[in-house]
Every structure is written in structure tokens, then in C-alpha cells.
Design goal:
Elements lengths: L1 H56 L23 E5 L12 E3 L2 E3 L2 E3 L2 E3 L6 E3 L4 E9 L4 E8 L3 E8 L1 E2 L6 E2 L4 E4 L11 E7 L2 E3 L5 E2 L4 E2 L3 E5 H4 L2 H12 L6 H4 L6 H6 L7 E3 L6 H8 L3 H8 L12 E3 L2
Antiparallel strand pairs: 1-17, 2-5, 3-4, 5-13, 6-12, 7-8, 7-11, 8-9, 9-13, 10-12, 13-14, 15-16, 18-19
Length: 315
């Protein structure tokens, strides 16, 4: 009889102990849950940081097969199409004066835009990326810097008096990289600025409006098929009307406005900047043309998805 009572007491104690352990375990799990959520958030942030660092260490990996400091520009195969994000940018210089445009000059092609700067003026990185070259070219660029950006572009900054970055250095948009100068093949202090995709020179005026100190749009859709036709025509127009050949008087607003210059240019070509929500049909109706005409002029199809800020020729 006493043995039974002892066994019951032991069983009851064990049950109570087990219950208490279960409750304590549940309490521990409940207290651990917020910690787990916090750790998950920390892990996610750490992963995002790691991805960002990897992107900076291997920028534009989808476009470029190699990382070399041997050539300032080496043309490789262009993609059929490529979306270039321009939203996170900085103007390389506050100068609004262009002394030489992109295109034919002195019997040869000028592959960039020359901006009037003085020796010692601050030069900044146009986008975030990684410095690929910091070199000196006596018969050309002088002291120059090449940066490969995460958006796929490479930018070149030539004729500097001083280079303030090193090769393989990660830079952010707006970071100071050098000082304006007159080194190399140069007839006066200025910044020679190039924008290239896979080594192919694109008119910087496609992306930057130096007079307005702003980008032309938040993004640019490069299409290989239309590069030598419709886009090249737009490049020429935007380079001459939107940026080039301005005097100091025009920069300060004494001369004709940009719209007046456009109307007097007599180019015969007219362009439309795509706004949010617009389609080929709505643009055609607004401009009094057909969708087929828009497609033919711009080398695109009726089902082509338009990008906000994209430039379309309609006449």
C-alpha cells in the first residue's frame, strides 16, 4: 500500500515536472521567435550588402568578359538590346559650355564631348562603379581615367591635371576622381568626356544635357539594330541642339532659348519623349501619325515595350 502511494507520488511529480518543462520550453520558443526574426532580417541585409559588393567587384559582368587595364577602349560584341539605368547619376562637371561636340571633326571622328573646365576644377564620377584605368597618354588623352559602371557604361575622363583615384578602386556617383587640366593632345584646358558601351563610343548627349545639368531621361534603351539608323540621327540632333555650340552669353540666358534654337534648326526631324503611361497608339494619335510610321522611323515593332524617357522620332 505504501509502495503504491510512493509510486503515485513519483508519477505525479514526474508529470508536474514534465508539464513545467513543456511550459518553460514554450516560453523559450516564444522569446526566441523575435530574435529569430531579427537575425533573419540581419542575414537578409548582410546578403544584400554582399551582393552589392560583388556587383561592384565585377561590374557589368553580363556585358564584359574581361577586366583589363591595357586598353582604354576595345570594341566587343554589342548586345541586341540593353537597358541602361541613368537614375543614379552625377554631372561630371558643373560646366555648361561645350567647346567640341561628338562626331566628325578635322577629318576624323571625335568620340566624346569637350567641356570647358579650368586647371584644378573638380571632376566627378558620373555613376557608381569601379576604376579600370588610371594612365597617361602623351599623344592623346593625357592623364586620364576609365571607369566601368554598374549600369553597363564605361566613362573616360581625359586631359586631367591630376588623378585622385587608383585602379580597381570602387567609386560612387559624384565622388571626386580628378582635377581638370590640359595634358596630352590638347589645345587648352578642358575635360574630354566619353561614354562607351562594350567599347563602342556613344554620344554623351544621349544621356546628359550639360546645359541643363541633368540627364535626358531616367533610362536609355540601346538597340543594336537601330543604332546606326534612327538612334544615330537622334544622337546627332540632340548633340547639336540639346548641348552643343553654346557661347557663354547663351549659357547665362542672353541669347535665344533652347526651344527657339530647335525651331530655327530646320532639321525637318521631330522627336517625342515618352512619358509614363504612353503607348505607341497614344503617341501616334497625339502627333498625328500612324503607329506604322513610328515603327519605321525608329526601327521598332508594334509590340515593342516603350521605356519612360525614351526618345522617338515621329517626323
Amino acid at each position: 500500500m505504501k509502495l503504491k502511494q510512493v509510486l503515485k507520488s513519483i508519477a505525479l511529480g514526474a508529470t508536474l515536472l514534465l508539464s513545467a518543462s513543456t511550459v518553460n520550453a514554450q516560453d523559450l520558443l516564444a522569446r526566441q521567435a523575435p530574435v529569430d526574426r531579427k537575425m533573419k532580417k540581419v542575414d537578409t541585409l548582410a546578403l544584400q550588402t554582399l551582393i552589392q559588393k560583388e556587383n561592384l567587384l565585377a561590374p557589368s559582368s553580363d556585358l564584359y568578359d574581361e577586366w583589363s587595364n591595357q586598353f582604354a577602349h576595345k570594341e566587343t560584341e554589342l548586345p541586341d538590346s540593353f537597358h541602361i539605368d541613368l537614375s543614379h547619376f552625377c554631372m561630371p562637371t558643373p560646366s555648361r559650355v561645350i567647346t567640341s561636340n561628338f562626331g566628325a571633326r578635322w577629318g576624323r571622328q571625335h568620340k566624346g564631348i569637350d567641356l570647358k573646365v579650368y586647371i584644378g576644377d573638380t571632376i566627378r564620377s558620373a555613376f557608381s562603379g569601379k576604376v579600370r584605368m588610371v594612365k597617361y597618354d602623351r599623344g592623346g588623352y593625357g592623364k586620364y581615367i576609365v571607369i566601368r559602371h554598374n549600369n553597363g557604361l564605361e566613362t573616360i575622363y581625359g586631359h586631367l591635371s591630376k588623378q585622385l583615384v587608383e585602379e580597381d578602386q570602387t567609386v560612387r556617383a559624384g565622388e571626386v576622381i580628378g582635377l581638370g587640366g590640359n595634358t596630352g593632345r590638347s589645345t587648352g584646358s578642358h575635360l574630354h568626356f566619353e561614354t562607351r558601351l562594350c567599347g563602342v563610343a556613344l554620344n554623351p548627349a544621349i544621356f546628359f544635357d550639360f546645359r541643363a545639368q541633368d540627364i535626358v531621361a531616367d533610362s536609355y534603351m540601346f538597340r543594336k539594330n537601330s543604332y546606326l539608323s534612327a538612334n544615330s540621327e537622334a544622337n546627332k540632333l540632340r548633340g547639336k541642339v540639346g548641348n552643343g555650340s553654346y557661347t557663354r552669353e547663351e549659357v547665362t540666358g542672353v541669347s535665344a532659348s533652347l526651344s527657339e534654337r530647335k525651331s530655327s534648326s530646320n532639321t525637318g526631324k521631330q522627336y517625342h519623349k515618352v512619358a509614363k503611361g504612353e503607348t505607341l497608339s497614344s503617341i501616334a494619335a497625339a502627333r498625328g501619325v500612324t503607329v506604322s510610321q513610328l515603327c519605321k522611323l525608329n526601327g521598332i515593332r508594334k509590340k515593342t515595350r516603350l521605356q519612360i524617357g525614351q526618345i522617338l522620332r515621329y517626323a
